[in-house]
Design goal:
By secondary structure, this protein is an alpha+beta fold. The protein has 2 domains: about 140 residues, no CATH class; about 90 residues, no CATH class. The protein has 8 helices and 4 strands. A 4-stranded mixed beta sheet has the order 1-4-3-2. A hairpin with a 4-residue loop joins strand 3 and strand 4. Helix 2 packs across helix 3 and helix 2 packs across helix 4. It is globular and about 55 Å long. It binds zinc ion. The site of zinc ion has 8 residues, from loops.
Length: about 260
């Protein structure tokens, strides 16, 4: 199996924080949740903010091509063979790039993520297996199945009874809508990136599955757009979430007026 994630294919991106964020503690305990990828609150805790704090350390996710299923990754401890050959920020070396402490995903159980740390760049790199969601719990296959269920159901309420039967309706709907919104945004972006493959297709799981003649598409698509993952929304990409459509009142006011004068200092 491939055991390395070549730096040339890595896609650094600020993970929930601004560039130049704080340095991670060298003794971070496993399971730290300070904005780390995939460290979502547990089941049933998605009811409201805060979810991710946007003030975490600078974390960068890198796609780790394991060729494994999530079950095999856990049973074979795939994180132990994860390698970053050199620092993505400083391929020339000399920056104090070294292995960092691992962190545990909430789910799947027993799933750990290998990390590296660049001392000069104060940046931690997480080697995310290709099948795991970025910034959401679970696997891409699971989130894909949930979104497909929403698309196939007559209503979101009906879908929630199938996908999230044990969760009260408002929470289940939020859970489903969040995933649908993120996955559809990612698919729309991927269609633009792969015009030869997907031009004119509908940015839905159902539509892309049909176009590709595949039963599952998200893991494959992540591999097709490796160079762009930093800009794509999670859970497919490693970039920021798309902006909410709700405009702020101040934005509306600004739109109504003339352009502000250029600042002169
Ligand atoms: Zn470095």
């Amino acid at each position: 199996m491939p055991v390395s994630a070549p730096a040339a294919r890595s896609t650094p991106v600020a993970e929930g924080g601004e560039r130049g964020g704080r340095k991670l503690s060298q003794q971070q305990p496993p399971g730290d949740g300070a904005g780390a990828p995939g460290m979502e609150p547990g089941p049933g805790k998605e009811a409201g903010p805060p979810r991710f704090e946007p003030c975490g350390p600078w974390l960068v996710q890198v796609r780790f091509a394991t060729g494994l299923t999530s079950e095999d990754y856990v049973s074979q401890k795939g994180w132990l063979s994860a390698r970053l050959e050199c620092c993505p920020l400083h391929p020339e070396g000399g920056c104090g790039f070294a292995r960092h402490t691992m962190y545990a995903r909430v789910y799947p159980a027993g799933c750990w993520i290998a990390r590296y740390y660049c001392r000069r760049g104060h940046t931690t790199f997480s080697l995310l297996p290709e099948f795991l969601c970025s910034r959401l719990t679970g696997t891409l296959a699971e989130v894909e199945a949930a979104v497909a269920a929403v698309e196939a159901a007559p209503t979101q309420e009906a879908a929630s009874e199938v996908v999230r039967p044990a969760v009260e309706l408002p929470g289940a709907l939020r859970w489903l809508r969040r995933r649908s919104r993120l996955v559809h945004a990612g698919l729309a972006a991927v269609i633009g990136l792969l015009p030869g493959l997907l031009a004119g297709q509908t940015p839905t799981v159902t539509g892309i599955r049909s176009a590709l003649g595949a039963e599952e598409v998200l893991v494959r698509l992540r591999g097709e757009v490796v160079e762009h993952l930093a800009a794509l929304p999670p859970p497919l990409g490693f970039g920021p979430r798309p902006a909410r459509r709700r405009p702020k009142a101040t934005a509306l006011q600004q739109e109504a007026g003339p352009d502000p004068p250029l600042a002169t200092r």
